[in-house]
């Protein structure tokens, strides 16, 4: 198989790549794995002759057409401008998150000229598609009223994946990822970035600030669980998704105060002392607008799992990322 | 005021124009009214020095930027490729219905460089945004799973109108129009075209074929009511729409058999004899996937009305369109 991962040098893309190289795709042996991104990888990648890096602009249709070349069996489309940046730079957000997604979809569609079977496409959507007055738990039946350009662009991508799949141009699936915690690396411009920082930085011996109240409840999933979900989604037949290719992935709900308590349980008083609370009304308003709980019976029936609790998620971070985090954040 | 109507030579655009010229916009005197379309008008337009026609390509950004020139106060964006055509010609559908809408929105946004207040935009969406397993009555809270490219493109347009309005680039409102009956003119490539043909053609002395069963229930509105709704929407302040600029307009539900009965009541046995029934499984499947009833408490609270029944709607057609219909269909 030939598999392309856009945003392949991002933290999720890299992890999906490592998983595919180590454990296969579930669809057949991986012969070539192409990581596409707008910059060279900041984190180490495995030495593997199947791995290939391509740097370029996801919104450039010729580039993407050459990337998703004849013989491509599957695409993970993870490349995106994050929420804070898409909000601040409207043109950039639409260029990368909408034009880029269209370029990927049209490149997949163009494969139909030579390949009999449309490629599988796994598209990373987000909880940011929800907004407005939300029910107690959101899911596949919730009407989408995104409150950010990023959420809008993810909702646009879902609609496109559905239409192109219905027409047989691609065999797509759009997964609404819960907020991913604990992300390794440094803070980014996503409004959710504090949820990782408040655990990651203190465990690495650095200070972090929590801008929301301890009572704020978020719906989360660990990177391990998200990577499991992305790879699992690739292996499912398109028909399994039924009437819609959009799917809310499971997450677990936790109060931010409980996240701080888990930090203390894992890292002791020394780690806890690195965390301070400094309310930011803007961030509080954004995060309070996000869903607090996820209703995911369809995803569960399709075999997607959830993390047990925040302590397990913190343990995953310590096992998977803390050594590298100490090395790179130093 | 300077008002632009895209699709201004289409049957709704023309009628909105006549209404604005005769009765004003509700926002202020109309000084210039520009009808933009891809072809010259087929139907007569009033002699009015305020009226101006521009022909061009809605997806050409320079054209649209010149069209929505500084000083434009309001835009009705009605231009679209209809459902049958958008389904058959994917590229054309996306070009007109998505790229065209983006061109309109970006031209409105560009006005912000010179005009302090964003222009009002009325965008015509459609029941085609709904699909999949529908509740008994659909409305603003229904999750959108469009089953056609046209429906997808209308849903994309709604999301864009919402995001651009939230950011203050435009003061938009996206109205989900019920199926419009009785449309004047000739059949088009919309799957719903029979619903007008089955009344229009027999009353004009021509044969028509109904491709669905008499039990099929549809949610309809008359052109008069739709034009009322479009103009009423222009006059509402943006804040009236609350958290979402998307709004399901009211319609009335009627079985196709009852529509045939109304035809007989209005046109007698002579008209009824022109209607024959010839099931088309493809059209039946499409129409059966459409909502049978509309839940529109929000629109009603905002002052949008509905037609009383199919007899009233047939009477409107006879009063408003039948003379011209006889003349042009002859």
Structure description:
The structure is a homodimer of 330-residue chains. In chain A, 42% of the residues lie in helices and 18% in strands. The first copy, chain A, has 330 residues and is an alpha/beta fold. Chain A has 2 domains: 2-180 and 221-248, 3-Layer(aba) Sandwich (Rossmann fold), CATH 3.40.50.720; 193-219 and 251-292 and 308-329, UDP-galactose 4-epimerase, domain 1, CATH 3.90.25. In chain A, strands 3-2-1-4-5-7-11 form a 7-stranded parallel sheet, sandwiched between helices. A 3-stranded mixed sheet of chain A has the order 8-10-12. In chain A, strands 6-14 form a two-stranded parallel ribbon. In chain A, β1 (2-6), α1 (11-23) and β2 form a beta-alpha-beta unit. In chain A, 53% of the residues are buried. The interface between A and B is medium-sized, with 26 and 26 residues.
């Amino acid at each position: 198989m030939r598999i392309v991962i856009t945003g392949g040098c991002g933290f999720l893309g890299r992890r999906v790549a490592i998983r595919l190289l180590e454990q296969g795709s579930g669809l057949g042996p991986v012969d070539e794995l192409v990581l596409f991104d707008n910059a060279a990888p900041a984190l180490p990648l495995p030495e593997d002759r199947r791995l290939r890096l391509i740097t370029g602009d996801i919104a450039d249709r010729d580039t993407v057409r050459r990337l998703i070349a004849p013989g491509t069996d599957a695409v993970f489309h993870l490349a995106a401008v994050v929420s804070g940046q898409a909000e601040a730079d409207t043109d950039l957000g639409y260029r990368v998150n909408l034009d880029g997604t269209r370029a990927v979809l049209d490149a997949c569609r163009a494969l139909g000229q030579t390949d009999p079977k449309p490629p599988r496409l796994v598209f990373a959507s987000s909880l940011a598609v929800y907004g407005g007055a939300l029910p107690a738990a959101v899911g596949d039946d919730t009407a989408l009223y995104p409150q950010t350009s990023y959420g809008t662009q993810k909702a646009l991508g879902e609609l496109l994946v559905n239409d192109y799949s219905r027409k047989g141009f691609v065999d797509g699936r759009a997964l609404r990822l819960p907020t991913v915690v604990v992300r390794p690396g440094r803070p980014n411009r996503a409004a959710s970035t504090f949820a990782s920082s408040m655990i990651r930085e203190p465990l690495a011996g650095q200070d972090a600030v929590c801008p929301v109240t301890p009572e704020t409840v978020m719906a989360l999933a660990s990177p391990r669980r998200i990577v499991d979900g992305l790879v699992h989604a690739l292996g499912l037949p398109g028909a399994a998704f039924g009437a819609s290719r959009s799917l809310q992935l499971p997450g677990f709900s936790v109060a931010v105060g409980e996240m701080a308590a888990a930090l203390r349980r894992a890292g002791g008083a020394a780690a806890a002392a690195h965390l301070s609370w400094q309310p930011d009304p803007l961030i509080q308003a954004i995060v309070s607008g996000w869903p607090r709980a996820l209703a995911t019976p369809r995803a569960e029936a399709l075999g997607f799992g959830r993390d047990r609790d925040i302590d397990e998620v913190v343990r995953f971070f310590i096992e998977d990322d803390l050594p590298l985090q100490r090395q790179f954040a130093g």
